[in-house]
Every structure is written in structure tokens, then in C-alpha cells.
Amino acid sequence: MPFNEAPHILPDGAHVWVQPTTEASTYLPDLLSLFRAGSTEPFVFGDDGKPEAAIIPVDIWRALVAVATDEDGYDLSHLLVQARPELH
């Protein structure tokens, strides 16, 4: 899959590759094949090389929801992001 991605350094120093939004949909069939083969690497896309969204396997998404949900079923993920300003 020949991605046309750009490197980006996040505020916490982590590196991520960003696919242009205008091209992201063309890679969905290949991305699904990678996920079916066991890949868990997120597919990050956005405009001007800035990461704005990510596509992840549904099993990873479900695990994240389970971790971010309290015992009453409330999603606390917004609190996690607020508590870690380096994620902004």
C-alpha cells in the first residue's frame, strides 16, 4: 500500500505518519485487509500533515471503550484527554 503520508511529531514527542484526508478513502480496502491479517497499527489522516482522526480495528476500539467507561457505563475518555494536556 503506497501511502502518501507525512511525518508529524505530537506534543508528547511521539511520531505519527499522517495520510492526506483527500486520499484516505482510497486506502480503506487495503486497510481492512491489514486489520483482518492482524495489524493493529492505526491509520491516521488529516489536512496539511496535521493528525485529526484515526481508524483502528474494532477490537482495539472496544478495548479502549471498556477502559474509558466507568462501572455505571459513563464514558470518561474526555476526562483523560483534559487531564493530559500533552495530548492536545
Task: Describe the SSE topology.
Elements: E1 6-9, E2 15-20, H1 21-24, H2 28-36, E3 43-46, E4 53-55, H3 58-68, H4 77-83
Parallel strand pairs: 2-3
Antiparallel strand pairs: 1-2, 3-4
- Considering DSSP H and I runs of 4 or more, what fraction of the residues is helical? 25-40%
Oligomer: single chain
What's the helix count? 4
Low-confidence stretches: none
Order of strands side by side in the largest beta sheet? 1-2-3-4
Topology order in helix (H) and strand (E) letters:
EEHHEEHH
- Rg result: 15 Å
How many beta-strand elements? 4
First-last Cα distance: 29 Å
Please provide a written account of the structure:
The structure is a single chain. Strand 3 (43-46) and strand 4 (53-55) form a beta hairpin. Strands 1-2-3-4 form a four-stranded mixed β-sheet. The mean pLDDT is 86. With 88 residues, the chain is α+β, with helices and mostly antiparallel strands. The protein contains four helices and four strands.
Task: Summarize this entry quickly.
The protein is α+β, with helices and mostly antiparallel strands. Helices cover 35% and strands 19% of the residues.
Notable features of this structure?
88 residues; alpha+beta; 4-stranded mixed β-sheet; 19% strand; globular
